[in-house]
Amino acid sequence: MFSIDPNALNRARFVVHPLKPINLSTQFDNTEVDSPGDTTHLSDADTDSNHSHVQSEDDEPDVWTVKTNEGIAKNLTFSWDVPVKGPPTRSAFLSEQSARVFVAARFHVQPRLISDVDVIRRYISPADLLSSLKTTLLGGTSRLFGWDERDAKLIVRMDKNGHGRTILVLGELSEETTSSLIEPFLEIGTLICRIESTISDLRKPSTAAASRALAYALQSIIALVQSELSTRLPETLTMASLSRLSTSFSDLRFELGALAELCLCPLGESPPFVELPSTQAPLLDHLFSALDHFISHSAPYRTSAMIAYLLVTSSRDFNDSLAVTIGLVLRLSRPVKSLISGHKIDLPLFFSERSKLVLGSAARALDILRRADPEHPLCQIDWAWNAPGWGWFDKDLHAVDTQTREHIFNVRKALNKLYASADAATSTVEPEEDKTSSPTSEEGVPPPSESSETTTSMPHPPKPARVYKPELAAFSIFDQPPGSHIAEPVKDTSAAQFISNGPRVLPLSAPTLPLLVDATLLALPLAHSRLISSALFRVFTGRLAFKTHLKVLRGFLLGDEPIFWSRLRGALFEEAGISSASAAVGRGIRAGVRTRLGIADTTRDNMADERAEREGRAREWGVGLAVGLSDREGAGTWPPGGAELGLRLRNVIDDALEARWGAIPTSGSDDEKPEMARERDPERVVLKETSWRLGFLLRDLEEESPEGRARWLNPNAIEALDFLCLDYKPPDPIDAIITLDIRHKMHRVFAFLLRLLRVETVTRILFNTTFQEEGINNPPVLLIARFKIQSFISCLIGYVKDMAIGFHWDSFLAKIDEIEQEDESKSESTLPRDLKKERMASDIFAVHSHLSNTMDQILEACLLRARQRGVGNALKECMEAVLVLGKLVGDRCRQHSGSSADEIQEKHFILNVTKVLQRFDRLHNALVSPQ
Questions:
Q1: What residue spans carry the region label Disordered (predicted)?
Q2: Rounded to 10 degrees, what is the CA torsion of 388, 390, 396, 401?
Q3: At 341, which helix (H) or strand (E)?
């Protein structure tokens, strides 16, 4: 189908014959070239004519046959070592063309398809932009940029007519490129404006001192940043340096962003912004949290240093308040707000729980110490400490440790001198001027003086040459030169120095911020707080005789004073036989005397019967109660009252005090004794005051209950004497430990002991009636019931006194004695071995907590806690069974005394006693058997 011409193929293979080497010495005109397809030699003229006229269309010009033009011969040889000469050629890339060509091409390729009528494009030069950036970067408005109040940010200023939107176009750049280059500058200016707005809010008169200090610190940092911004701005701005300039402020923009985030006004949010905390402690917590966040996230050290400077500056007022609160400084040249509010101390949350506990206890302990001993060195001496401070380096930690040890040494030396003088005062009374002298004036710790209180950085005014009378001394100020009291203005460089020398990493000995706070800021306050609490504990156990108050409470309210409880039994209960006691029911206190003398009082008996009939109740005798407890509003009333009952109970207290401790009531002659004589024996003073601090009260109980009438209104119920309460009023400093809550717990124990005393009295009455009453044959079931009940009550009383109360109370007293001995023999070290003992020794309120826990343990051992209601009710019913048995025996005795014994009544009596015994056995087994 297709044919191949071999001749044509051969010709095509040898179109170009092998060339001869070029001889540079020959002339170009004499060069002979073999024409393709022809082997004859041609002349130069023939070659030219053939090249220009005779060449066919299919033939390509042969470079070897082309003759150079006539003229000067040029060497057209190119090699690697010959430089290229001639004018540079323009690049073919569009992006490398001139700016105008590129802009024209861009608009040609991307034309504006939509006409923005409301958009105004403003073409500016780099010089115009630089002129506006000089004010915009500092947070101000300029010719190109203005402030938007609604969004709280800097925007491109609109046209004069105020309509539409203005877009800046810088040189030959596009709108998007111009916007991206200008946006970082606008963000920096916006952040500065927002921070300055926060500063204005913090400077309001109603804000706290910490807020105003924060405003000052923020203003110092903003001034430092603005100075760096002004320094980095070039004198001239070109299109080539614009992109480099926009990235040169990235570090400052990050710092301003961190400050704006701290001020709760970051770029990502719009107004209204969240306000900073207005009180001192929450504001410091916010700053501390921000610093902890930036340190934990490895922020640039300048950013962390700025936040640290804000925290240090803002906490100065708090440091001064803390120093005054715990007694490090007595008075400052300017007023500071106390950290104590009510019974709490306002401390930041970033303080550890232990630190807050120690500082809060020390603040309350100092207040109590000032009331207990106003002349104590810790209440009268200014320890020349300007308030605790922060530390960020290892050298700061060593310096704080040295100052703390020196302070502890000075305080202990002053206290040891006070204790030594107090021991010497027991034999010799010191003169008044020795007591008022400063105990540390010879130990290197200066006493408070006017000069130390008003020490400031201001120069002292010159002394006036004219001498005025004391009443006219204030006019000497007019003799001074004008402005002599004003300090010279000093440029504040504290912010720049702190930031440049600020902490890059935390010390190795305190690698976290909470540890750093305890090691620097709180090192001295914690040590001083322990000294205050230890000194107050020494005052309590020494001059205030705290343990004597505990002895009074243990003896009278907790049943450890046998004389008091014996006389109380005689005043409230009757141990004689039932037949002699039941004859005088509710006829006043003198009824007992009339009964023993055999004098009958039919009139009062009739009155009691008529009153009981009107009230719809039977005339009953309260089993175990003393005869004639009530003479109020006629016979037969309950609860008892009246002056005779109050006098009898008052005599019980006074007789017990005089018989046991030899104390007598205070009188006017005691007030005439010198104060030092009273302080020689604090225990005797406490015992003298016990007679009027201790007294019986009638509790205000509810008369109605869910079951009906309250049981304490029934004289036969076990709760009949719950209205009677023995209370103790401790003196002013002691009531910080023996609080009302603890006394209420003691009232519950006293009411329980009063029930036991009544039940024990009934068992004695049963014994006397069973074995001493003549003419009455007691059935065996009564003897068995009496034996079981009396055995149970005896064991219960022994358990309550020895274990439930005695064991826990003695353990509490032993702990106090041990702490007191360790405190007296403690060396200069303030680091105790046992943390629990140190907790009680360094905090007097821990003694209150331990006493409260001891009372809780006593209540639990006596089955009086609310969660023990079930088993407590079983114990109460066991004790009430004793009263029921006593009432049955009493009714039987009255029946035998009035008439002969009836067999039916005797069987009924035996049946009731059997029921009581069975119920008692069931309740007893429920108590003692394991669940």
A1: 27-61, 423-465, 663-682
A2: 40
A3: strand 340-341
